[in-house]
């Protein structure tokens, strides 16, 4: 490995890198520290042909060039084009061109990335702090650089095989009856199903580690009954603990000093779903262990998987800031506001959530470390704590993340929308997440916010069939989005069955990628250096065997595909192979019906298929045929 490590100041130990490196004696001149401003500036030249890959969970294309981004784990439910930060902070990128070099900035606070936006021929990075480790990785091409980077950050989390089955979620299935109705819907339609998710309403008043007894009278027995059928219930656990006298989890946390403090030394408080909450200090080993061990109350009831949420952390409001806003608008009570007064009054309220002043008032490690400076570690350290307590082979994935958390769980990409553009966003994020070690990944298939059409959900599934996490999830108030909820469900059955046929292949591939620090999803430009491959932004390579080119536009029955080499075009539908044809290198137009899953098998490669089943417990992974 050819890796240089530069240290500026005294960085906080993020545990992102697990190998020790000698520190270079001098920092290169493209890194400038401004102690007065409290910032580090990095400036890198870009050749006109250079491509920028990476940054993990981010908006934009596969090539990150020409945009601005921010690393700051953000609870932002509207992933519109101009957004600069989502839930993860993944500070690794590669400049690929005449020379190809990778950079990892190990810094737990905010970073601003101008990737050739203000000046086309320059990357300008601003780090909001003066302590950071910077790794520069030179290697023979993108794949080698990624492998070296993944080697230094440690082996990726690997979920159990049933977590590769089709999963159904919604905010919310609030009680047993509703869950039974969902499972019946799948059974009647003959559509495979492996899990059903419990969103916040399964709890008693959204309090972590409680169960609403009315909704689930004998939870343990119910979990066992479903498991008999091969279906697992996956509860959500949120980062904050309801501040409530007498609530045992709160009382234990408060008594043992497990919560983050405010600047005055009291437990820091802000509102999330349950109302005012305290926030376990996941940066403290004992608090982390305590919180992780709480999950055992649920695993003892037979639960085998969890999704952990709101861990950026999301703060709806703090009482202090809310009061400030109220006092501010009171001043104008009865007045005719001019436009600026109106906007500022309105903004006082819209800016309450996830406010930096609250993050600056939140303290870790007994008041010694300001949350704002280490913001991006919160979800990561929560994931670590939970993983370390859970039995082996438990499914775990998180919303917030920082490089390092890939060793402890997967991630889902948060509150997307039922928009066609979000199918493409989903596709584009897959390789950049893999670059940062996240292998068990997926988006809310069908979209979380807004209403999905039948066509959108089916087309989205034709992509999600290939993502390790294949979960249909939707928000409160949206139309039913289950695969049986759109009238004729035969098309859904056929598409989802293809997933089950691919499970032995997908599972082994993810395992191989975890063991060898490789990527499952690769941009075409990682393997082929012709212009069309380098610019391709809507197709991906999977492993060494497959290329996918899903349809992501409405009212299309086909699309144009670029083949960088000869490949076999295959379409599967249920147990049938509906199409198989060798296509030459070049541009082709392919037709894809709504009930087919299209993909391309690379030259001299084969993909194993088993027979479909109603869930993974019933899946015979013997190879039925090769395609
Ligand atoms: C957050 C999560 C979403 C969940 C909702 C309610 O918005 O991202 O997946 O359904 O909270 O818990």
Strand content: 15-25%
Shape: globular
* Bound chemical compounds: alpha-D-glucopyranose
Structural class: alpha+beta
Number of helices: 14
The Cα radius of gyration reads 24 Å
In total, the number of strands is: 37
Distance between the termini: 37 Å
User: Which regions contain 5 or more consecutive residues with pLDDT less than 50?
Assistant: none
Helix content: 25-40%
> What strand line-up does the widest sheet have?
25-24-22-19-14-13-12-27-26
* Sheet of most strands: 9 strands, parallel
Mean pLDDT: 98
**Assembly status:** single chain
What does this structure look like?
Helix 5 packs across helix 10 (378-389). The strands form 9 sheets. The protein has a 9-stranded parallel beta sheet with strand order 25-24-22-19-14-13-12-27-26. Strands 28-29-30-35-32-33 form a 6-stranded antiparallel beta sheet. The two termini are 37 Å apart. With 627 residues, it is an alpha+beta fold. Helix content is 25%, strand content 24%. Bound molecules: alpha-D-glucopyranose. The site of alpha-D-glucopyranose (GLC) has 9 residues, from loops. Residues 171, 199-200, 236, 309, 399, 414-415, 473 line the site of alpha-D-glucopyranose (GLC).
Give the structure's gist in a few sentences.
The protein is of the alpha+beta class and 627 residues long. It contains 14 helices and 37 strands.
Helices and strands, with pairings:
Elements: E1 2-8, E2 31-34, E3 39-45, E4 51-54, E5 67-71, E6 88-89, E7 92-96, E8 101-106, E9 111-115, E10 122-127, E11 132-138, H1 142-153, E12 167-168, H2 176-189, E13 195-198, H3 219-228, E14 232-238, E15 241-242, H4 248-255, E16 261-262, E17 269-272, E18 275-278, H5 285-294, H6 296-299, E19 305-309, H7 319-330, H8 339-350, H9 356-361, E20 362-364, E21 369-370, H10 378-389, E22 395-398, E23 401-402, E24 410-412, H11 421-435, E25 441-442, E26 444-445, H12 454-464, E27 471-472, H13 490-516, E28 521-522, H14 531-535, E29 540-542, E30 546-548, E31 558-563, E32 567-573, E33 576-583, E34 586-591, E35 597-602, E36 608-609, E37 625-626
Helix pairs in contact: 5-10
Alpha-D-glucopyranose binds at residues 171, 199-200, 236, 309, 399, 414-415, 473.
